[in-house]
Amino acid sequence: MVVKNPERGEQDLSNREAHSWPPTSIPALGKQAQGPPYARLRVARNGRHAELRPERRAASATRRGGGIRSAIMGFSRASKRRLKRLLAGVDRREKTVFVTLTFPRSGPQDPDVCHALMRKWDKRIVRNFSKFGLLWRRAWQVRGTPHYHLVAWPPKGVEVEQFLDCMRREWVDVAGDGSGWFRAHGFRGEPVECLERVGGYLCRREKVLGRGRPWSTFRHGLIPIRYEHAKLDRSQYLKIRRVLGRLSRPFGGRDRRPKRVRSIEARMHAYVSHRELSKLLALLGVSTT
Question: Which of 73, 223, 260, 287 gives a 20 to 30 Å CA spacing to 211?
């Protein structure tokens, strides 16, 4: 339909509905992008993380690094962001346990000695079973002694209860002082039902700041994180980027909704379930590998 306007002349209103939001349907964009891709999409299989990365970086991007690094103090926002992205990409179908290791009141106060005991305990678990993925988070108590929160993924064929019993027995043997308080409160382990709640607990604000790395992983390659990849052209990239900004939800329940990235050349991270993202990719005709 064509409408005549004395100021703007003739206007075609037949395609006005196609540019409105939200659209009634998103047309399929065909097969996989041919030739050099404009952007790449990385989706966590059975997880809640997606990364959209353009091939061309912004001209204002600068390289960081260099110089002598100072001692790590506290838990920075960037470190929390990396921890959440790692947990968001974990496969939810895998068995997961959450463990807390506490040292006795008469135990060591030096964080290096405490970390050495934790490493010794980890080696004993590996000898009893086999290698497994583990993420540790060091938190500081009011009395000035660190304790550890661990997220572990048992090896294939090992029951959760058997895995936790071995952990408890070895921890009492490695760090125990023979007191009843340590036997009752030194070890706590349970299977994980909601990984988002665990992520929110591990990224909570600390009241006591200590020296040293706040978190890291052992045998990172054994953590069940599997990503699917897709190549996008410019049209696919812009549509997926717009929809991801609306589907993304906070991970862990303790951070705000991520702010919009103004530059379309910047990398984008979103916390979206694999099921919702699979429906979106199927609607747009994008295949993953």
Answer: 223
